[in-house]
Backbone:
C-alpha cells in the first residue's frame, strides 16, 4: 500500500469522525503547514494559531473536502495561505488603528514619592499569601465587594473578612513610615 493509499484511507476514516485517523493526518502534515505559516507571517505564535486554525477548518469541513492527488495537503496549504493573508490584514488594521488613536499628553517626570509608595506596596503584597494579596487588591484597590472577592478565591465571606483584616493590619504596619502623620499600628498576635 502506498503513502497515497494510506492517506486516502486515513481521510475516509476521518470523514467518518475517526479522531485517531485525523490525528495521524495532523502528524503527517503539521510540520509542513506550520512551516508555510511561519514563512508567510514571520511570527511563531501567529504561525501556531494559523496552523491550528487550518486543521480546525479541515475537521469542520471534512465532509465537503475532496483529496487532491490523494492528499489533504494541498487544501491545507491553500487554507494556510488564506489564513495568513487574513492575519496580516488584521494586524495591519490593528496597527493602523493604534497609530490613529489620540495619544495622551506626555507627563512630566514621575513623582519619586508615588513611585516609592507603589514599589513598597507591591513588595508588601508579594509577602502576603496569594489569597490574602488577591483579597486586598480586589477589595481595597479595585472596589470589589468582599462577598464577591471571597467567592472568587474560594472562601466564605466571614473567613475572607478575617484574612483581609489581618492583611490590612500587616500592610499598615509595614508601610507606616510612608504616612508619618497617622497613628502607629500595634500588631496584636493571635492567641
Residues:
Amino acid at each position: 500500500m502506498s503513502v497515497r493509499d494510506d492517506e486516502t484511507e486515513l481521510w475516509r476514516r476521518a470523514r467518518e469522525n475517526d479522531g485517531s485517523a485525523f490525528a495521524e493526518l495532523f502528524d503527517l502534515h503539521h510540520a509542513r503547514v506550520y512551516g508555510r505559516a511561519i514563512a508567510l507571517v514571520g511570527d511563531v505564535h501567529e504561525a501556531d494559531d494559523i496552523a491550528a486554525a487550518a486543521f480546525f477548518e479541515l475537521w469542520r469541513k471534512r465532509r465537503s473536502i475532496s483529496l487532491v492527488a490523494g492528499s489533504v495537503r494541498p487544501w491545507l496549504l491553500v487554507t494556510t495561505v488564506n489564513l495568513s493573508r487574513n492575519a496580516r490584514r488584521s494586524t495591519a488594521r490593528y496597527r493602523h488603528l493604534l497609530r490613529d488613536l489620540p495619544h495622551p499628553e506626555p507627563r512630566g517626570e514621575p513623582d519619586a514619592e508615588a513611585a516609592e509608595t507603589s514599589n513598597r506596596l507591591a513588595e508588601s503584597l508579594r509577602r502576603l499569601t496569594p489569597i490574602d494579596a488577591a483579597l486586598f487588591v480586589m477589595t481595597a484597590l479595585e472596589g470589589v465587594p468582599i462577598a464577591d472577592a471571597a467567592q472568587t478565591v474560594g472562601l466564605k465571606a466571614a473567613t475572607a473578612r478575617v484574612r483581609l483584616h489581618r492583611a490590612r493590619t500587616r500592610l499598615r504596619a509595614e508601610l507606616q513610615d510612608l504616612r508619618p502623620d497617622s497613628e502607629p499600628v500595634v500588631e496584636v498576635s493571635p492567641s
The two ends are 79 Å apart (CA to CA).
